């Protein structure tokens, strides 16, 4: 039987697992490591014009130096809302106003905060692992359906091995990304 008749699409499974890795990288980028980064503001939403809006759509985000992020808010009426969104975001940063420019000095991370951030990174990695395992389960379900449509047992074992290999490779990538991020966070 041809592969397309049996509905086992390794490319789709790979794409979905890569999507989980991409989401993990985005979440990791939002974790601050003591260095200023514009990406740390990506999860922060501002209540602008009646709907939640990403900060980069209400102003220009810059990193003029290693411990400072600035946001040049385009609409003066939104400066207070942007400041409030940053304070309530849980980033642990105290915004300072200078006209329409909001300055975010990034404080040094103490040991306790670094440990907390490594735990948050581990949670993000576990969410990615769960997402990858869910994709694996979908792949295994496809194989079971194909088996009921007449796939041989040898082919079933072969496909299950392929899906498991794909899963193991992506879980290893998650583990490597987590180790790298935790090392980055703990670096003084």
From TrEMBL:
<dbReference type="GO" id="GO:0002184">
    <property type="term" value="P:cytoplasmic translational termination"/>
</dbReference>
<keyword id="KW-0648">Protein biosynthesis</keyword>
<dbReference type="GO" id="GO:0043023">
    <property type="term" value="F:ribosomal large subunit binding"/>
</dbReference>
<comment type="function">
    <text>Responsible for the release of ribosomes from messenger RNA at the termination of protein biosynthesis. May increase the efficiency of translation by recycling ribosomes from one round of translation to another.</text>
</comment>
<keyword id="KW-0963">Cytoplasm</keyword>
<feature type="domain" description="Ribosome recycling factor">
    <location>
        <begin position="24"/>
        <end position="186"/>
    </location>
</feature>
<dbReference type="GO" id="GO:0005829">
    <property type="term" value="C:cytosol"/>
</dbReference>
<protein>
    <recommendedName>
        <fullName>Ribosome-recycling factor</fullName>
    </recommendedName>
</protein>
<dbReference type="InterPro" id="IPR002661">
    <property type="entry name" value="Ribosome_recyc_fac"/>
</dbReference>
<dbReference type="Pfam" id="PF01765">
    <property type="entry name" value="RRF"/>
</dbReference>
<dbReference type="InterPro" id="IPR023584">
    <property type="entry name" value="Ribosome_recyc_fac_dom"/>
</dbReference>
<comment type="similarity">
    <text>Belongs to the RRF family.</text>
</comment>
<dbReference type="InterPro" id="IPR036191">
    <property type="entry name" value="RRF_sf"/>
</dbReference>
């Amino acid at each position: 039987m041809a592969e397309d008749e049996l509905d086992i699409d390794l490319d789709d499974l790979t794409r979905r697992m890569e999507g989980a890795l991409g989401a993990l990288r985005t979440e990791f980028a939002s974790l601050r490591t003591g260095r200023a980064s514009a990406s740390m503001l990506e999860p922060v939403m501002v209540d602008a014009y009646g709907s939640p809006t990403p900060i980069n759509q209400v102003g220009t985000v810059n990193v003029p130096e290693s411990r400072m992020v600035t946001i040049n808010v385009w609409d003066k009426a939104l400066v207070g809302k942007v400041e409030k969104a940053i304070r309530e975001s849980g980033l642990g940063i105290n915004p300072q106003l200078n006209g329409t420019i909001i300055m975010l000095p990034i404080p040094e991370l103490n040991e306790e905060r670094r440990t907390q951030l490594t735990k948050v990174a581990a949670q993000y990695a576990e969410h990615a692992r769960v997402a990858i395992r869910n994709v694996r389960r979908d792949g295994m379900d496809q194989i079971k359906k194909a088996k009921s449509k007449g796939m041989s047992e040898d082919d079933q074992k072969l496909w299950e091995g392929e899906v498991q290999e794909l899963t193991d490779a992506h879980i290893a990538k998650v583990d490597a990304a987590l180790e790298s991020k935790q090392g980055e966070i703990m670096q003084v």
